[in-house]
């Protein structure tokens, strides 16, 4: 009797199995077995089930709050044997699928897709990016925008690596960017120190609008979230740290950036059909329909606490849910609780799991 290998299983059987997979990480692993399995999972990959956000952690771990499960590495590229003495690239997530990888040794940069294993080479970043761990970035179908504080660079995509280069955006030369969000053909460049948002056309890189801060004391922490035409500004006063973990953003504002006279208004709610996810890199909204443990009218964020001992410093991460109804925050019990990880240069960031390598992610609203 001939031995049947995994790649020789009937295509009808493989297609039936793939159709029953509901978790994106499992679809991704199924497709990575061999070419016949990848082909059998074509329908599942073309229309994957909607996914709530995951956390990309600095230790190359991925945390799924819905499953309360930690995934190591997924399909992130592994270094070749000759490169194993190099430092591990730092990873900076985006809700649009791709992740920015930066080698701290020589600032070599690339886009990597953790759910497909695809990579796109980018030019090496300028030397001044070594001077700080702070980095803001996002990407559009046209290219990548990145900043380490003062000034902003852009690299237009090209099929030829010889044509790839970082170029400064003159109109944003004095911009102290803390986060960059791409949505609906615009980049939204946020300056946390002055709570100012600059809207930049993603194709021409011309400044479309400058949105000054609302009437608020300069915060200890502020986050910008983008959802369609709406911008959400979330402010935490330095005094909030005196009240413990059961409170969070002291002020929240909303603005329609396409209105004739855009102005920040106090935020009373975002609706029970969606939730906001924010971190130091990005902020975005997702629909809550179909996700039993995802609460509407709620802001999800991630916090980091350092744990010091005589030998080294580690960190713990936790997810908080801030209700816009009660204006109070609660930490979500999860497998992250009590888990200490090595401290690295990156910060945790929310990503939308996807095996679609285009710019549009269906889970975003």
TrEMBL record:
At the top level, the lineage of the source is Eukaryota
Q: Which residues form the KIB1-4 beta-propeller domain?
A: 62-303
Pfam families named in the record: Beta-prop_KIB1-4
InterPro entries from the entry?
A: KIB1-4_b-propeller
Q: Which residues does UniProt assign to the signal peptide?
A: none
| Name by which UniProt lists this protein | KIB1-4 beta-propeller domain-containing protein
**Species lineage, top-down?**
Eukaryota, Viridiplantae, Streptophyta, Embryophyta, Tracheophyta
